[in-house]
Amino acid sequence: MQSEYEKTANAVQEVFPQESDVLRMDFDMGGKSAALFYLDGFVDKIAFETCILRPLKRCPELTTPYADAINAVTALTTPLKTVDSPKEAAQAVAEGDMALVVDGAEGIFIFSERAYQTRGIQEPPVTNVLRGPREGFVEDVKVNMTLLRRRLKTPALTFKKLFAGKYTDTPVMVCYLQGVASEDVVAEVTERIKGINIDGIVESSYVARYLEDNYHSLFPQVGASEKPDIIAAKLLEGRVAVIVDGSPMVLTVPFILFEHFQASEDYYVKSFRASFIRLVRLAALVLAIALPGAYVALQEYQYQMFPLKFLISIMNSVYGIPFTPTLEMLCVLIIFEILNEAGVRMPRYVGMALSVVGAIVLGETAVNAGLFSTPAILVIAISTIGLYCVPDATDTGSILRVLFVAIAGVAGLMGIILAVLALIAYLADLRSYGTSYLAPFAPLIEHDWQDGLIKESVRDMNERPYSIPTFNRVRRR
User: Fold this and answer.
1) Could you tell me the residue ranges of all domains in the chain?
2) d(Cα 198, Cα 206) in Å, to the nearest integer?
3) pTM of the entire structure?
């Protein structure tokens, strides 16, 4: 007949499949039978041998309470924990901890000496800056928490630990500044994460879909950044951050459209330079989305609006082209999207060569062959360059410009004007945790214009933005 100790040890082992990589080590400890469970690749072998296994085996006598006796003989770098059920112990082992079952003990002891390989902290590959911090988040949630702690050295910085995913059981940290962030927003974010019912969370984008008010929308309603200084600045404004283990992208809510035009470098340079660059970004995005559609509308319906010399030049360029202006523009757009996707997915150096071949050789050959006109290639090239001036809006902008081209081909400039009005009305109706998506312009919040298109000096920003729900408005006295 099995003893209680053997039943408990076997129950922990039976939670895992027979072909599992979980290791079990049986030994005597102070005259008592003991079994230690762990995953080989998750444990610091030196700490395991010197601080845990050898001291436990050399324990002369095990007296109650067992937890005090274990703490007395081992040299643990983390506190000893106790769980009651074999299922909880198996879950701890799956997360990288060690579980110790001792004959006669009331619970199962959990040691945490994790040491697995992670990517080093380095400059993010997408968010490059000329001036400012160059550290970026990594895939380990604890490292990311430390990066934020280094910038916000205050007890008010709070991390609320949750788990999501049936099989992955991914740690998700809700991060905010207590006394600054709105408690209602924190509670809403917590409830939405607790309500996630999915097999696994592989990346933070999975969580972002559950945090959005309208997940069918083309526009993102959750911010994402891979730079600790950006997240720290948003936390100081009263936002709530969400850190997902396994992802270098940290999410923030509430999120407004104008955040696409803000960059961390804006706050490290003079205000006039930041204001000018923001205006350039806005103009670039508007040009990127509207230019292809406007060109098609003018060429199809309102060609009389072209200056005479420019019209003659265009007519000479499009003479002999087998496609209509709308179909030609859509074909060029699709070709550019294919080239962009191929350049991103292929190895870096091959991708660079592909970009040169696609942009120069293929484009010039298509023009010389009479398939596409030079103005169409030029318009799409300008539109694509403008689109990448606002990297976070690239996905949305690339789809919008295709829609605008299709609308322009059917209804001309009037169709584009109506589409723009419908788009503005739709954006004005979007909400992100009680915040208008077009804030501070719709509704009009004059106070927040200090950090709008025209950015004022940090010394003049005495209060936090009124667009964001916050418990404390005062930022500088």
Assistant:
1) 4-111, 141-262, 271-429
2) 9
3) 0.83
